[in-house]
Amino acid sequence: MREREVRSLIMDKLTSSVSFVLGAFIGFLVHRLLAGVLLSDLGAGVSIPMLIVLVAAGGLFGLSVFPVVFRGLRKATSKLEAYLQKVPTQDLVAGAFGAIIFLLIAVLLTLPFSQIPYIGVYLPIGLTLFMGYLGMQLAVKKREDLFNLFTSVPRSVERVVGGQRDKAHKHQSPCAPKILDTSVIIDGRILDICKSGFIDGTIVVPTFILEELQHIADSADPLKRNRGRRGLDVLGKMRKEVGAQIQILDSEIGNGIDVDSRLLKLAQSTSGKIVTNDFNLNKVAQLRGVPVLNINELANALKPVVLPGEEMTVYVIKDGKEAGQGIAYLDDGTMVVVDSGKRFIGAEVEVAVTSVLQTAAGRMIFAKPRG
Asked: According to DSSP H, which parts of 242-294 are helical?
C-alpha cells in the first residue's frame, strides 16, 4: 500500500508540472498572437510584462484544467483496458483483422468519392468509419470460419509438400474453455477428473460462481454452510494441483439475472462448455445449443458393464419397495434389487443378474439369489 501511495503522489506531481508547462506554453502562444496583431505599435517594455502575465495566467489555467482532463483520460483508459481484458482473445484478433481489411477497402473507395462536389471532403470520413466498424463486426461474428481458414492452409501445404507430422495433430481443433458451475464444484469429483488429465484446456470459474459459493458458505443452515465450504476447499485444492489450468474470470455478463442464465450466456460468448451435474441446467443448455459435460453421465459411462446371467456377491442392507425385495449396492454406488432378498438383510448373498435398467438417475441391476 505504501508503494502505491508513493507512485500516486509522484504521478500527481508529474501531472501538475506537465499541466503548468502546457498552460504556460498556451500563454506564450497567446502573447505571440497578440504581439503580432495588437502590440505592434507598442514598445518592447510593454510586451515583456505582458508576456510574463500571459505565461503565468496560462500556467494557472493549465493547473486548474489539465489535471481534470488527465484524470478523465486515465479513467477512460482504465475502463477500456478492463473491457478489453474481458473480451476473448479470438474476438480481439478477428476484430482487428477485419477492421484493417475493410479500412484498406475504404481507402480505395474514397478516391472516387472525394471528387464529388460539396460532400467530397466529408464523405470519405464517414465511409472510413463505417467500413472499419463493419469489418470489425463481421470478423467477430465469423471468427471461427476465419481461424479455420487460416489453420487449414498450412495443413494443405503440408500435405502437398509431404510432411510427416502426426495426423491426429493436424486435425486437432482449438480447445474450448470448460466453465464450472456451483454444483460440480461442491460435488468435488471434478478435482480427481482434472488431476487425471481427462479435462484439457482452460478451466474457467466465473466470479459470480465464487460469490454464490461464498453466499452458501455464509448460510445459517449448517448443511448449506458445509456444502459451500466444501466447494471453496475443492477450488483451493484445484488451484494447487492444476493451478496453471484454472482461470478466475471476472465477468459482468447478464448482471441481474439468475446464475444458470449467466452461465449459459458466458458459455455462448466464449464458445465454452459448461461442466455440471445439475440435471435441469443440462436440459436447458441442450435446448439453447450450449455444449455440456455432465459429471453424472461420465460416472455412469465408467461403471462396469454387467450382463444378464453374470454372478456376483452383494451385501443386502435393506428391504425394497416391493414385497420380499432386498436392496444392495456395488462399490460404485449402483443399486442392486434382489428378488426375494429381504430374508438376507444384513448378510452377503450370491446372486445372478436377471436384467439391467438404465435410468436418468443411474443404472439399476435386478438379480435373484442363486439356488
From this structure: 259-270, 279-287
**What is the C-alpha separation between 365 and 357, in angstroms, rounded?**
6
CA-wise closest residue to 173 among 204, 216, 205, 144 = 144
Q: How far is the first Cα of the chain from the last one, in angstroms, to the nearest whole number?
A: 78
pLDDT tens track for 221-254: 888 899 999 999 988 888 888 766 788 888 777 6
Of the candidates 177, 165, 228, the residue with the CA atom closest to the CA atom of residue 205: 177
Q: Which residue ranges make up each domain of the chain?
A: 2-86, 89-143, 178-301, 304-369
Residue 141 and residue 135: Cα distance in Å, rounded? Answer: 10
Spacing of C-alpha 236 from chain mean position: 19
Q: Which residue has the higher pLDDT, 139 or 44?
A: 139
In the numeric block, which cell numbers belong to residue 63?
A: 493547473
Task: Count CA atoms within 13 Å of residue 30 on its CB side.
Answer: 17
What superfamily does domain 304-369 belong to in CATH? Answer: Nucleic acid-binding proteins (2.40.50.140)
Which range has the top average pLDDT, 33-42, 247-256, 322-331?
A: 322-331
For the chain, give the percent of residues with pLDDT over 90.
9
Cβ neighbours of residue 182 closer than 8 Å, sequence gap 6 or more = 209, 212, 213, 216, 231, 259
CATH ID of 178-301, from 3.40.50.1010, 3.40.30.10, 3.40.430.10, 3.40.640.10: 3.40.50.1010
Question: Which residues are registered as beta bridge partners of 249?
Answer: 206
CB 56 within 8 A of CB 28: no
Distances (CA, A) of 223 to 114, 187, 204: 72, 14, 26
pTM of the model: 0.45
Angstrom distance (rounded) from CA 180 to CA 157: 39
